[in-house]
Amino acid sequence: MITIIYHESFLTVSEKDLFENQLSLEIRFCLAPDGRIIDCNQNGDIMVRQFGHSFYDFFTKDAVIEAKAFLNAIQKEPDIVSALLHDRMNDRDMGIYYNGFFKNGKIYLAGYRTDPLKRAAAEFAHELRNPLTVIKGFVQLSTYTQEFDKYNRTILSEIDRMYGILDNFLKLTRKKINMKKMLPDKLCMALIAFISSECLVKKVTFDYDIAFSVNVCNVDLSMIKQVILNMLRNALEAVEGKEGTEKKIFFRGSVEDSGYRISLTDNGPGIENHLLKQVGRPFFSTKENGTGVGLSLCKKIITEHHGSFCLSSMPGKGTTASFSLPFAD
């Protein structure tokens, strides 16, 4: 059974292979909705010449069902969709991990062979083996000497180290949203110290206005912090090049009829109207080295909170990024 994941990070899939040398391990395709391959990079061409000119040619009859489900999911979702597919080359490793996006009636795929995943698993096992060796040695020693209390602290510290290794590994794959009821004004106050410290380092004037709320919202605090961090990073980059006038960022929390709105405003150069309509779409960025994923991810997280994300701007005046969180029933 195929597992579909709405991915959190992704190298930009572009129509042109501008970075073919740097991305020599990446397999890229441009597909028609029916799976027919329109274009591909050099690594993709190897598969085309070996198996055929349809994406479905890469799979056995049983696996084609999963491939079709994956392409259908891509065409229905505005975000990046990922899946591990077991193709006819999987004797080398577990298969190919594909990221896909639907744009202008075409499907864009970037695939990565899972051999690096096996190496990561080996490194993970190696990291765990070190504390396990220490624990085993001290347990044997304490059994021999009957001095359990003497080695108890060391054993517990090694167990804590194992938990840390496991936690770091799980952070790479953790997708579950952990919702908790929280007063939104308390949420904002918890973020103020973080935002103000960042502004202080960047020498940006920071101010805020947080409205009191009697109603709670369901939030995953770590995910909301991720949204705020992305908004803050964009605001700081916007005012970075501002010279001659004071650089300012304003943080606001306000009560609305059905929810609570959190916004961040900068006094940077703003965004032109024709660009503003495209900002927030996956892969579009106004930054020279931007991936176009950050704001798209913010929108995805807020959608998962059943809220809405908004971006408004006035050229020459600044930009406001905001999102609303509905009140819990």
If you had to describe this structure to a student in words, what would you say it looks like?
Helix 5 runs parallel beside helix 6 (221-240). The strands form three sheets. The chain has a six-stranded antiparallel β-sheet. A five-stranded mixed β-sheet has the order 8-10-11-13-12. The two termini are 35 Å apart. It has eight helices and 13 strands. It is an alpha+beta fold. Helix content is 41%, strand content 23%. Residues 1-24, 280-285 and 288-293 have low confidence and may be disordered.
Q: Features of this protein?
A:
8 helices, five-stranded mixed β-sheet, transferase, six-stranded antiparallel β-sheet, 329 residues, Sensor_HK_Regulatory, Heat Shock Protein 90, disordered N terminus, 3 domains
Order of helices and strands: EEEHHEEEHHEHEEHEEHHEE
- In the CATH hierarchy, what is the architecture of the largest domain at level 2? 2-Layer Sandwich
- Biggest sheet details: 6 strands, antiparallel
- Strand % is 15-25%
Computed over alpha carbons, the radius of gyration is 25 Å
For the record, the count of structural domains works out to 3
Continuous helix count: 8
| Distance, first to last CA | 35 Å
Using the coordinates shown, work out and report the CATH topology of the largest domain: Heat Shock Protein 90
SS-derived structural category? alpha+beta
The total count of strands amounts to: 13
Kindly state the percentage of residues in helix. 40-55%
Low-confidence stretches: 1-24, 280-285, 288-293
Which homologous superfamily in CATH is the superfamily of the largest domain?
Histidine kinase-like ATPase, C-terminal domain
Q: Mean pLDDT, nearest integer?
A: 76
Catalytic activity: ATP + protein L-histidine = ADP + protein N-phospho-L-histidine
Domain Histidine kinase: 123-329
GO molecular function: ATP binding; phosphorelay sensor kinase activity
Enzyme class: transferase
